[in-house]
Amino acid sequence: MKYIVIALLLLVSGSVSGQFEDQEFGVISQKEIDMESYPEDPESGAVVLFDKGKSIFFDYRGAYDIRFTRHKRIKIFDNSELDYAEVAIPFYEDGYDATEKVVSIKAVTYNFENGRIIKQELDPSTVYVERINEKWRSKKFVLPQVKAGSIIEYKYVLETPFHFNLPDWTFQHKIPTIYSGYEVRMIPFYEYVFLAQGIKEFDHKESYVDDRVRQWGDVNKVYGQNVGSGVEFKEYVHKYVMRDVPAFKDEAYISSIDDYIMKLDFQLAKFHSPQGSTEEIISTWPELNNDLLDSDHFGKYLNKAKRFAKKILEEELQIATDNSMLKARKIVNYAKNSFKWNGDYDKYAIKSAKDFYKTRVGNAAEINLFVIALMRRAGIDAEPVILSTRNHGKINANYPFTKFFNYVIVLIKGDTPFLTDATESQLPYNRIPPRCINQSGLLVEEDQENWVGLQHNIPASELHQVLLTPDPGSGKLKYRVTLQAREYAAYHYRDNYNNDTAELKSYFEDKIGGVQTVMAVNYEKPDKPYVIVIQGERDLEQLAGNLIIKPFLNLNITENKLTQPSRRYPVDFLYPRKELFDVSIAVPAGYALNNSAEPVNISDELVDIDLSYSQQGQLVKANGKYTLKESVYEPAQYDSLKYIMNKIVDSFNRDLLLEKQSD
């Protein structure tokens, strides 16, 4: 991933031209009406005609807030992209009376019938607010009467008191964009830096000083400081434009679109006081750690939690061992079974330690910081690790921005250190959830900068023991499958199907067909393999008196999702993977294995593949194994990996032929 990082000072001036730069709301051109596809991407089901944003600082109650305006227009070509009629506007509430506000929304659908434009305006009563988590909300609406051929247009205004995070801008979407432009009008007291991700060069970029002089009132506050009367200033104006932005192709095995999509991220770097002093806002990683440890909602919460942790250790846990690892395991398992996660990600505790102790329900920070308090009270060296979950994007270690982080886990030190997260009862005590496996996290220690790798190198494995019994007389193939899933493969089944045999049966019915019974064991023992037994019967394929058998029953990889001719992003499997197959086929009397089935054996730094067939009397054995050795494969390895995946798909999906023997 490449970033361009530039302080928002004066850039080279230039001119902007383009069909959509000054487009007014509701003014639809004949060219837009007649457009049936986008020539640069004729297969796309829609195109963003333009997407324009603007951020300004405005005087609000003696201080300066930020007003962000967005104006967007999309042409829908076919029904595949009707979801773009559903719009969500996220906004932030800090929990301490400061909040962002969506102050206006205007939205219209344009349809074209009998040579006339039919306008359908959004009914304001249909706009609603949805809770995302404790601090984030989303204002949502659906544009009316959207269909193939429609143009949709909306414009909204969001006001925010939070200067640290100037509204960011995304130039790229999953559909192509003809014009995307962002204008920021700065005041000289706030200096920002931006990270330009995925952008080699803007189609247009300019900066200039607006000649208009602005003046504040008698007493105003900037960044908490009073500014006397008569303070005059001019705005710095910055414009960024990109044209004909291609659609982002959401390829398989990618960490997060936010890690690669073309966008600008802003962060406050300095505050310049009107009295002449300058305050550095971008700190260092050690300073960021110190701020966290000094926070009421992080370090001080942890310290206060120790008092309640002592009660739990004495009254509930009563650990009778001096072995620190056994104590740590017991504490983690206690927390997993006694504390309830409310589903919210956060790097800060919202509740007090006392309230969490009473309710035993909390966000990720409240639970895991309390676990650290338990560990420390028990004499175990435990530290918090802050990270960015996969859906939140990767961390740029060059810039100590707190907004990069949204989650806390626990590092247990000692002879055998491990990471843990007490929000997940379906994982072993020494594993973190897949959502947390995202490069590295920052160890929160005073005056330190130490990073902890989050990758997991033990393969997630599935062993399939299969017995196939073909019956030419009835035309049926009976099967019995015993699946043993370990590591994150076991978590996948536990988390997705919750030991619901009806759900498991539906899943395997789609893969195998003819499922009659499903049984599972070890669901509540996350340190044990999760075992699933499937029995069923399916039609037996026959051709010219011979039997055609699919030995692995589609339980293997059946499709190579690496379909692009090349790739700019890593292939991220989250963790190494291993699939093993031990198949026994009871050959009916008078049949024998056709010896054309070829073995496969490949072993290199990327993968291991081993596949063989044999017949012993009336039993045919098919033994197969493939291992993807790495969690993440770099773009330079893509061609080799794509070839290997094709090899796995081809080899493990071949049919076996049991030939009818002549008398």
Summarize the structure.
This protein is of the alpha+beta class. Strands 6-5-9-3-2-11-18-13 form an eight-stranded mixed β-sheet, with no helix packed on it. An eight-stranded mixed β-sheet has the order 30-31-29-28-35-39-38-37. A hairpin with a 2-residue loop joins strand 38 (607-616) and strand 39.
Account of the protein in words:
With 663 residues, the protein is of the alpha+beta class. Helices cover 16% and strands 39% of the residues. The chain is built from nine helices and 41 strands. The strands form ten sheets. It has an eight-stranded mixed beta sheet with strand order 6-5-9-3-2-11-18-13, with no helix packed on it. A hairpin with a 3-residue loop joins strand 37 (600-603) and strand 38 (607-616). The longest helix is centred in the middle third of the chain and has 19 residues, at 299-317. The model is unreliable at 1-17 and 217-229 (pLDDT under 50).
Attribute tags:
663 residues; alpha+beta; 9 helices; 39% strand; disordered N terminus
- What structural class do helix, strand and pairing data support? alpha+beta
How many H/I helices? 9
Largest sheet: 8 strands, mixed
Strand content: 35-45%
Portion in helices: 10-25%
Radius of gyration, whole Å = 30 Å
Q: Could you tell me the number of beta strands?
A: 41
First-last Cα distance: 67 Å
Strand order of the largest sheet: 6-5-9-3-2-11-18-13
Task: Let me know the average pLDDT.
Answer: 90
Overall 3D form: globular
Low-confidence stretches: 1-17, 217-229
